[in-house]
Amino acid sequence: xxxxxxxxxxxxxxxxxxxxxxxxxxxxxxxxxxxxxxxxxxxxxxxxxxxxxxxxxxxxxxxxxxxxxxxxxxxxxxxxxxxxxxxxxxxxxxxxxxxxxxxxxxxxxxxxxxxxxxxxxxxxxxxxxxxxxxxxxxxxxxxxxxxxxxxxxxxxxxxxxxxxxxxxxxxxxxxxxxxxxxxxxxxxxxxxxxxxxxxxxxxxxxxxxxxxxxxxxxxxxxxxxxxxxxxxxxxxxxxxxxxxxxxxxxxxxxxxxxxxxxxxxxxxxxxxxxxxxxxxxxxxxxxxxxxxxxxxxxxxxxxxxxxxxxxxxxxxxxxxxxxxxxxxxxxxxxxxxxxxxxxxxxxxxxxxxxxxxxxxxxxxxxxxxxxxxxxxxxxxxxxxxxxxxxxxxxx
Length: 395
Fold this sequence. Notes:
By secondary structure, this protein is mainly beta. It is 1% helix and 37% strand. The chain has a 4-stranded antiparallel sheet, with no helix packed on it. It starts with 6 loop residues before the first strand and ends in a 6-residue tail after the last strand.
């Protein structure tokens, strides 16, 4: 089936915006039997079951032309083949990240991720690949892939971690995460328990190298997964990372993290060596007043005031699998006051989605699902893409 024309729903994918193009990679997709001429496909009778997006490729959406997310989004598929100069297959994964990279760099970068086992009988299902190449570059002009070996400092392929980046400085960050039997070829069918990963991988996307920074001062031996992280440039000499939410443990013993504690990292300390006698750049900030319910699998973006005097970190959706509670809401963490404000609530919960700021004041959301939808109906967001006008959400 065609992942565009037969699209039903998509979640746990990776996405990124660069040069007015939206790239959507991997994840889990359900398909419908609908024809391209059919009306929006919200009929559960067309549902055929969840299968991985397979080797169909990366979906590319041109954002430079006029479009309406309800009617006329133009999508194309760029096939995945092999890395330049090799016979190595490009990983097909979920719950990794696409980094934007430097504006002058034509590449975007796939890092981490895990192979989906939701339907291993699917004809295009790909088993896990080697963890030696957990970083891949996709040239957004030629659509060719290049593999990079960062295994000296980052020997595993992590998934489910929190991430942020500083494109102008070629720096990307991936905090904590998970290692499972489906993370790489070396762990495939190992029949071992899922393992959470300490540390924060810092990637240099200019030289394609990596370093690992300690996070033990904030995790206390319990690394987090499925949370959020953003970069704010105009605080401190080099900016800060803000991280919140997610959970400790694994799917069998998940413990959602309270949203009343915010974790902050001083980017200026990245070049300093880790030390047991320091906080290694990390500190915490407690939030008073109303806070969002604990959750995982949400998305988050940041928008600054015109004069850079304050910043709004937007949190959208997510769920708490331990209850389970699912959310269709938007909360804003205002900085430097460190207060949470709920600015939107709806009736269509969504988790496993991604989001990006475009044009300064619009938030594009991609994909997502909920427990009541993916086994019964297709996504009401016809191409899994929606737009929020952040200026209409009052803080």
